[in-house]
Write a structure and sequence with these properties.
479 residues; Rossmann fold; 2 domains; 8-stranded mixed beta sheet
Length: 479
């Protein structure tokens, strides 16, 4: 039994009005089956379609999952296709249809609070584990669905959570709540006071309740998960705030149109930034970027955490009092894929903001990439190759205002691409590593450096950099 290929339960997000509830219930997969089509320039210069079927369809097609539908009524799991008491596939994919009772056609129109939805999700998990023989399940959730999963973990299961849930992947979940832009604080207070259609679910008072926190819990610490390891959580964060509905006007930039980036992740979780909106035709759920991160997080056998450590700028920059901040732009791409795994840019507001002193004295994690042995090329080299494209940009400040005359827009202190190849050694423990700034050409030596340590340090060099390292922390995810 391959314990990475566990049952998957999908939990959808918030339907804010009755019309959205009815349209959700009309969809067998609650919308998770929706794909996207984009037009791009082809090899001959003409437009061509780029079709992505949806992550759900790809899981069925690429990884052999079988789909199931279920809802929980009066504490009983009702499997909507197949026998409720029959065995199910280990590689089963479940849609938790919790809005069926909120529909005025299929239910009584009532909304259950998150605490009750979390309890029903727990009952479904027990049913799936019992019928499939799986030790645990994976949870995949969009938006409010991630909060339902956290309520289950933190308020219901608690110390039993690691016995029931293996991994949690969230798309655009407001782990720190939904916040409006400056000047609209009154709107959030009105939302939380009225609680129309349970909209107060995204305010701090209700979040403390259903996440099992004390009433005086700091509102800035709501994104901290309890009773579950944060490294078993992946947070996908959208950066396109313009391609969403009118909510984007209330939330503003540095968001996916509904959830601000700084509130869209579990603290210390793996995370990726993609130029996608919260939902919709070109949203993050039905994106290839989301799927590539999802499949590698759930099924990957190796993870590589990429970080900058002890980066010291040249003396003339260290002595410049106007150099107040640094922006770290990061892109990670995997060879053989057409999408960027994470894309943090200054123009999207997703670049990492730090200071020269913090970068010199500490460590800044850029990304954790997950690799799958099954996706490695069937050639002699059998390496998983990926690239880290890194830029460090300065921000000069004088009298609390950004100084525009010190540099051209986008001018960098460092810009380079690190290409990395990783494979398991044929005989004995350890891994073979090939790494170098720039591109590893096809005629480079096939034999890599034998590496048994968990940490690989690669010097950071540049005319503005005195010293520093980019480190790779490699972890075996099958353990």
């Amino acid at each position: 039994m391959d314990l990475r290929y566990l049952p998957i339960i999908y939990v959808r997000g918030y339907a804010g009005n009755q019309g959205l509830v009815e349209s959700t219930v009309d969809l067998p997969y609650y919308g998770f089956n929706l794909g996207s089509t984009k037009i791009r320039t082809g090899a001959d210069g003409d437009p061509e379609f780029r079709i992505f079927e949806s992550p759900l369809v790809r899981l069925i097609r690429d990884h052999g999952y079988t789909d199931y539908f279920a809802r929980v009524e009066d504490g009983n799991v009702n499997v909507l296709r197949g026998a409720s008491d029959g065995d199910v596939e280990l590689r089963s994919l479940w849609i938790f249809r919790y809005y069926d009772q909120t529909s005025r056609i299929t239910g009584d129109g009532s909304r259950d609070p998150i605490e009750e939805l979390a309890g029903d999700l727990g009952r479904l998990i027990e049913h799936v584990i019992r019928r499939s023989g799986a030790p645990r399940v994976h949870l995949v959730a969009h938006s409010m669905g991630g909060l339902i999963c956290r309520s289950l973990i933190q308020r219901h299961l608690k110390d039993r959570a690691v016995e029931r849930v293996d991994r949690l992947f969230t798309y655009g979940t407001p782990h720190g709540g939904i916040h409006f832009r400056t000047g609209l604080g009154f709107a959030a207070k009105l939302r939380d006071a009225l609680g129309i259609n349970d909209a107060d679910t995204f305010g701090p008072r209700r979040m403390r309740q259903y996440l099992g926190f004390d009433n005086d819990r700091d509102a800035n610490r709501l994104h901290e998960i309890t009773h579950f390891p944060a490294n078993k959580v992946f947070s996908l964060i959208g950066t396109n705030h313009e391609d969403y509905n009118l909510a984007r006007l209330a939330v503003g930039p540095r968001s996916d149109g509904l959830v601000k980036m700084e509130h869209a992740y579990v603290r210390n979780s793996s995370r990726a930034f993609v130029f996608r909106a919260h939902s919709g035709p070109l949203g993050m759920v039905n994106s290839d970027e989301g799927y590539q991160n999802l499949q590698r997080f759930l099924f990957g056998d190796t993870s590589v955490e990429i970080a900058l450590e002890d980066v010291r700028l040249k003396a003339e920059l260290r002595d410049n009092e106007e150099l107040a901040h640094l922006l770290l732009e990061t892109q990670v791409v995997i060879r053989g894929e057409e999408v960027t795994m994470t894309d943090q840019r200054e123009e999207d507001g997703s670049a990492i903001r730090t200071t020269p002193a913090a970068l010199e004295d500490g460590r800044e994690t850029l990304f954790r990439v997950f690799l799958m042995r099954g996706l490695r090329p069937e050639t002699r080299e059998r390496y998983s190759f990926f690239q880290v494209r890194l830029r460090i940009l300065p921000i000069y400040v004088r009298e609390r205002r950004v100084v525009r005359d010190r540099q051209f827009a986008g001018e960098h202190l460092f810009a380079d691409t690190l290409t990395i190849g990783i494979r398991d050694e044929d005989n004995g423990p350890g891994r073979l590593i090939r790494a170098g700034w720039g591109s590893l050409e096809s005629d480079a030596p096939r034999q890599g450096t034998r590496q048994t340590d968990d940490v690989i340090s690669i010097p950071l060099k540049g005319r503005h950099i005195e010293e520093g390292e980019l480190t790779l922390r490699i972890r075996d995810e099958t353990e």
